[in-house]
Amino acid sequence: MMKIRLLLLFFIFSFSCLYAEDGSKLWLRYTPVSKEMAKNRSITADAKNPVAVQAQHELATFWKGQSIDLKLDKKLTHLKDGFKITGHRDRIKVTAHEPAGLLYAAYHLLQLQETDQQVLNLNVEEIPSFDIRMLNHWDNLDRTVERGYAGYSIWQWDDLPKLLSPRYEAYARANASIGINATVINNVNASPQILSSEYLLKLKGLSDVFRRYGIKVYLSVNFSSPKILGGTSDSDPLNPQVILWWRNKVKEIYSVIPDFGGFLVKANSEGQPGPQDYGRTHAQGANMLAAILKPYQGLVMWRAFVYNPSTEDRAKQAYQEFVPLDGQFSDNVIIQIKNGPIDFQPREPFNALFGALKKSHEMVEFQITQEYLGFSNHLVYLAPLFKETLDRDTYADGKGSTVARLTDGTLRPAGKTAIAAVANIGDDTNWTGHHFAQANWYAYGRLSWNHQLASEQIAEEWIAMTFSRDKQFIAAVKEMMMTSREAAVNYMMPLGLHHIFAFDHHYGPEPWGDQKGGRPDWMPWYYHQADTIGVGFDRTASGSNAISQYSPHVANIYGDILLCPDQYLLWFHHVPWHYTMKSGLSLWDELCYQYDLGVKQVRDMQKVWDRLENQVDQQRFAEVQSKLKIQAKDAVWWKDACLLYFQTYSKRPIPYDIERPVHELEDLKKIKLNMKHHN
Amino acid sequence: MMKIRLLLLFFIFSFSCLYAEDGSKLWLRYTPVSKEMAKNRSITADAKNPVAVQAQHELATFWKGQSIDLKLDKKLTHLKDGFKITGHRDRIKVTAHEPAGLLYAAYHLLQLQETDQQVLNLNVEEIPSFDIRMLNHWDNLDRTVERGYAGYSIWQWDDLPKLLSPRYEAYARANASIGINATVINNVNASPQILSSEYLLKLKGLSDVFRRYGIKVYLSVNFSSPKILGGTSDSDPLNPQVILWWRNKVKEIYSVIPDFGGFLVKANSEGQPGPQDYGRTHAQGANMLAAILKPYQGLVMWRAFVYNPSTEDRAKQAYQEFVPLDGQFSDNVIIQIKNGPIDFQPREPFNALFGALKKSHEMVEFQITQEYLGFSNHLVYLAPLFKETLDRDTYADGKGSTVARLTDGTLRPAGKTAIAAVANIGDDTNWTGHHFAQANWYAYGRLSWNHQLASEQIAEEWIAMTFSRDKQFIAAVKEMMMTSREAAVNYMMPLGLHHIFAFDHHYGPEPWGDQKGGRPDWMPWYYHQADTIGVGFDRTASGSNAISQYSPHVANIYGDILLCPDQYLLWFHHVPWHYTMKSGLSLWDELCYQYDLGVKQVRDMQKVWDRLENQVDQQRFAEVQSKLKIQAKDAVWWKDACLLYFQTYSKRPIPYDIERPVHELEDLKKIKLNMKHHN
Description:
Two copies of one chain form a homodimer.
Chain A (H helix, E strand, L loop, with lengths): L1 H14 L19 H5 L3 E3 L4 H13 L4 E6 L10 E5 L3 E6 L2 H16 L7 E5 L5 E5 L29 H12 L4 E3 L12 H15 L4 E5 L4 H6 L9 H17 L5 E4 L16 H12 L5 E5 L10 H9 L10 E6 L14 H4 L4 E7 L15 H8 L12 H5 L10 E5 L15 H12 L5 H12 L4 H22 L31 H5 L5 E2 L16 H7 L10 H4 L2 E2 L10 H25 L6 H33 L14 H6 L9
Parallel strand pairs in A: 1-2, 2-4, 6-7, 6-13, 7-8, 8-9, 9-10, 10-11, 11-12, 12-13
Antiparallel strand pairs in A: 3-4, 3-5, 14-15
Helix pairs in contact in A: 3-4, 8-9, 14-15, 15-16, 16-20, 20-21
């Protein structure tokens, strides 16, 4: 009996550190300052702007340190919407050029507080890397989310504008806390309906909330909107009726939302309408809209993600389409370019358009939602993926022409600089489906604010604010996060393999994928090009010559099988199975070990997480544990599917020290998941 | 082009050693001797008995060595149906007391030839360990096979006796080649119909084939046959009408099958009728049949596998039922006792009945078909399991009272000694579903012939005759086979756990298994007794005291938690989770490592097999490889299910260096396989 009581006590003790947690708080877990403590310090602001008031409010509620004075200084234009913080033991002074700068400073101070950093002697100046730090929602008006894996859209259109979900403010606050100041509310595959007067009023409901957090609203627009919504005879950008319709519509928008940001346009791509439908160029289409938006300081983000079924390598098409138009785009058009030449793969080389457009404004588009990275089932920390593109040297303007410096205004003076990423946010309680997917939202925001931050530092901040400030805990979880993206590449498509996903839903492996009469550029075999000789897409001069789109320095490296980094090898080269890799292994063996490594890495992630059970609340522990199980099973699925499939070409044994497949290729081929683009 | 041709040549060469193989030949792959070679030697026989002729025929067809003379010698009674072989470079002399002895000698010589052993100087005397070496078929008359996993029954009742499948002779020859000389043709859950005149004539068709290979036919009989088939008022063994019916029926049987072996009876067990239905004892029931069979030298095998739903430990019931009857059974009754006290589990201690019946004839019943060992999906070499029981010292008649010596006539003079095993044979092309399950049929035969053979030697013989004589190949496959049973115990139920199988079909794990209103002794919780304190069935004096059924020496060891071998620990003891094992680990940790070891062992088996790809024909290689994949997946399933379930009691973490679960307990609980007893 004594024994049982002791055991009971033991259990109660072990679980005492656990409390209910659903992840809804994200990284914003400040606890209010005590009245006692608040008495001893003051938080003042010299501005009555709602954003400045919000800054003051956050600090008054949560700041546990010395007094703070918030000041706007219209002379400090160099700060943009950044801030300057100086301070000592008794008092901190925050200055900013914009009210939003004060708000960002407030969150900066709270972040220092929540991550146990010193605040007694501060001398900080932060100027954001990009002017426009933008989320792209692929949310449809029926509340499905294309490539969304965290439930339905958070925009409750039926209730808007009358009912405002408390989520809208929580969303705005979370974004502001990491510097995001722009949001494209709807899917790039846009319904014209979003431009209806009814929806513009709903949108006003949202933008009124967002404005207090310094966030501007943008819209994706359907290029056929004039014809569909306005009844014009066509949507030709040179048709005066069409132009008139747009002019009136823009006027209407700004009458409802005076600080409206502008349009995002996916035109003539994957079935979307565009200027080419009328024999006009992308430039003509974009410039028409830009001209109308210009008086309002509105912008056009024009997507470069265009490709068509043709004999030309898909990876080359955006470049071929846009480079000839270079110099023709208006000043308030920014070409929005996906980080890689294909489509948000686990790993891609940088898009050759970066730097190649010498006289056009460019911006990067990332994907936070994990369309090609295990949805919200796989833990994949994306900061290293984002950094990989941002830090890549294009050599477009000589050494040091990184994608970041080409797009942030450093190398090429620009009107407004911008960066965008497809959001992973839905109405799931924890916002992003996977608790660790919150880190990708966080990391994107932090990098859009300062692209020089290290992935490690961002991870540390996020872990400390989201889970625990314990140093060993942070170290363990950071290690897991930092491994995770390489793990995903390894178990999905190492060595430069790409787009061998199952058709349509892009979740599992389908390297054998083929559809009678389907577009080759939507078929996995198009991308891996496996045959009995080898595997990989020859994009050198002997192949598609996509390599020629890069600057000579880059082309020389990627185009030379001896110089090309392993991680891009099969992206640029068709490599024989027997080819000797830098490791000394044959390509086939190396491929096998990479897949196996991916599986091992996920299993190690499971071990790391399980060890932390007593340091995480029960709900989030169990939910992440459960997702890691799925990831571990999926990793084996990927490994078996890819190795067994490629083995039918390589005819080589899987190295015998590797854990053997547990699936039959024929069984895996039968798997047809009933998954939609969205959930 | 040159390159492609070279590659083609390479492929053709690599596959040149592979040929189509379906496993139908079992271990009988002798190739006929050339005419040239046959000319230079003679095979003579001094007997015209069909069995002796068969012996002569086998040698004449396949023997590639010197001349052989086969002789019967009626004086050599000590040989029983064994043989003596003496010989030198030019001539071999085989003598036997029975014609079957000549046939066994022929297969012995062919085995020496096929396993590359010397035959130039022979001096061999082999006397079988048991007189009756028996297979029990659990085949139903509708051709389903209870607990059969190799297709339908090989007995094609509709076609018998007119059409004789060539499989009957192949079956008889395979059995004779390993010394099996008796077969119970039908399920112990017997249909009375088997005793109908129609079926006896069908049976004659089979027995006529088997006789040429020295094999006697036995029948399982339903104790209610007189009433059901003969229309008697009941089946009371003391009812003169009943006795008369049996007498006439036995007379009829012997008129059709003069060398009929006798009856196997499952009575008053799991719903089968028996003498207790009329207030008679097992002894009265058995003796009635024995008296009728005695004039024909017929035998009664009476099964001790009886238990009833009661508060008494199921493991004790057979002992309690039969020991009080000791001394009452007729001389031609043999009590057929399953190797363990429960039911063919992956590991059981020996059945306490062995030796406890001092004045009754006893025989062991093994199970070759893998009811509790992964069906025909898992590679589990059973010779070590058989040996484990045979070699176990019961101390019933003092030290050295092994189960083998108690039942083979060494320690206790017996009329006829016997051994039985439930067959794993079906109409699958490869006979046993899994190519390696053939080894269990082989091993059982070899051990019934000579229970002192080592498992390793039997494996070597079987591998050499079934796959390859290559020494490295044999060593690798033998290692895999020798590990396999421990692997299965480890991933299914280590440390003495038992019967935590899914209800009814006994394939997967279901330690949580429970059925409202179901018999407790058919529920896994009855056997594992897990609670927050610990796990295991207390069968010591403080529990069910099943331990008291063993001789004091054995009871002292198994009953003492400090002395009890780990492999039986949870069979006999309820052990606290924190209990320190011999390894120094806690019980919980030890359990975790055992399950994990099981998974690793199966993965290692996969590696061994895959390495042998070029040394095995393609079909058998691929089929075994595929089964090993299932086994590897199942092992993880077992590990996850049992550890996650027991963890709900132990409340302890799975040691962190162990590969983490990939399943959710709640998902596993939902698995309901639609499997029948038979296929």
